[in-house]
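Forwarding these from the shared drive since the link keeps breaking.
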Amino acid sequence: MLRIYGAAKSRTLRTLWMVGELGLAYDHKDYLPRAPETRTPEFRALNPNGRVPVIDDDGFVLSESMAINFYLAKKHRSALYPSDPKHEALALQWSLWETDRVDRQLVNYVRHSKELPEAERKKEIADASWKEVVESFDVLEIALAKSAWLAGPAFSVGDLNVAGALYRALFLDLAKWPHVQAWLNRCWDRPAAKRARAMRE
């Protein structure tokens, strides 16, 4: 049995979306980031980083949401895992790009402009983060103006990983990036995405 550790209100959202796409049965441990459950010796034995998500797939333990999603899609021979090596490489490229260029930047922008109590927000962090988000969205817009999907002719693990990480962008004004907005909506309109989103909201 596949066991998933991590709450939908974390990067585990991407993995919950993936298992929905694959139609997998799983046991869910709904642990929030930095929750007491992630500090126990039992959890630290699974992931010494103390972070979620983590999966235990019949004894195979893996962390990092992007890697988890690649593993699950490939193991279950899903069409979401590109069979063409070039498309596979693009899925990896965009997933790694997101973790470097958008993930923390978008989180910091939203936290310091909307989510945190006003007294805890730092405008300088929000402004600096937004500048980097704009640069990254500009890059994504160029790619999506050329292709409807990031890694080949169809929706793939690459799209799921990046769109899953851009959950907070669903609530931003993306008019400046029409191709990004249309792609993000296409991704999150999938039934499995809607189910994962409902778990978070």
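-- next protein --
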Amino acid sequence: MRSFNSEAAISLTERPGAETFAAPWSKILVIFMRLLAMIWMAQGLMQWVTILTPLEPLFNHTDWITGAGIIFFAVFDLVAAVGLWLATPWGGVLWLLAALAQISTALLVRPFFSPLWIVVNGILICLYFALTWFAGQAEGGAG
């Protein structure tokens, strides 16, 4: 019999002492969240590279909105990536806020993000909601 670890960051069992693992949709959702975490970690680190190793003085030659965006995404993307990697509900919420902020920034601050990010983030958000819904349906039907 498998023991239940109540201190685990992610539990794939339905309840303490359960023998079976959660539905495949839950596993797929966790894998999707981990892949998103890697992408958002890379984005956050790229923003830090922009801050720490600029080719010319960064904040002297940019407007305040671009500077604020660089700092915001440098911090927020990394925090969202940690939450996604742990597959926590707050990680998904922070990621959704980060993705919506990227869409807004791509629309309002033209040179900051490519307009392609609007489409990519839209697809990723739809995929996240679909996987979350399927995982919830599978857990609801399994009990």
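The chain has one domain: 24-142. Residues 24-52 form the longest helix (29 residues).

- D.
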